[in-house]
What we know:
By secondary structure, the protein is an alpha/beta fold.
Amino acid sequence: MANILNIETSTNVCSVALSSEGQIVDHHENYDGMNHATLLSKFIEDMLNTAKRKELNIDAIAVSIGPGSYTGLRIGLSEAKGLAFGLDLPLIGVNTLQLLTVTAMFREFFDDDVLYAPMIDARRMEVYTALYNNALDALLEPQPMILDESSFSNFLDDHHIVMIGNGAQKAQDIIKHPKVQFMPDIKPVAIDMMALAEKAFRESVFIDVAYSTPLYLKDFQATVAKKKLF
């Protein structure tokens, strides 16, 4: 197993964790909003100091690549790239929707026929989502989706579906079906990246330090404040 520095900034949670030999050695999390630009560098510095104190040589940097907050993803990937380049380490990209799914799997036991629909809140009734089975095979690839009463209905004849993440709160208000379970309180955080990051490291699945980009799923749309007339 490897020593990996994990960075997660895809939502309003800023978190960093140092994992070693399948265990979390140290971690920081902040749930107070979009403070990533202020907090992330200090969190990383603390993890590097922990690694030095415990005489751990970091083998790779892992970062959540989205989908999620445009600003959060840019900050996280930028810090991860700089760190990987400066330390001459491989860079691992962790899909945030898969991260939510794995977190739910570890949180609670589900039957084999269950499917997982991780959801990250977008705007209005839209979420970023996908649909995975227990092997993390994608039955629906990551995509933006506007939720309505019929969302995922073609899968509910044969499966139960667990809807996960802050976007699941929207789904809970709309989708009323006995085969749907909601886990809206699960957030993507760095301590839960370990399993996916270690798997990627074992299989040498890395992303390009120079040219990799976040998984945005749709183009950024800036909002302009309305001018006051008086």
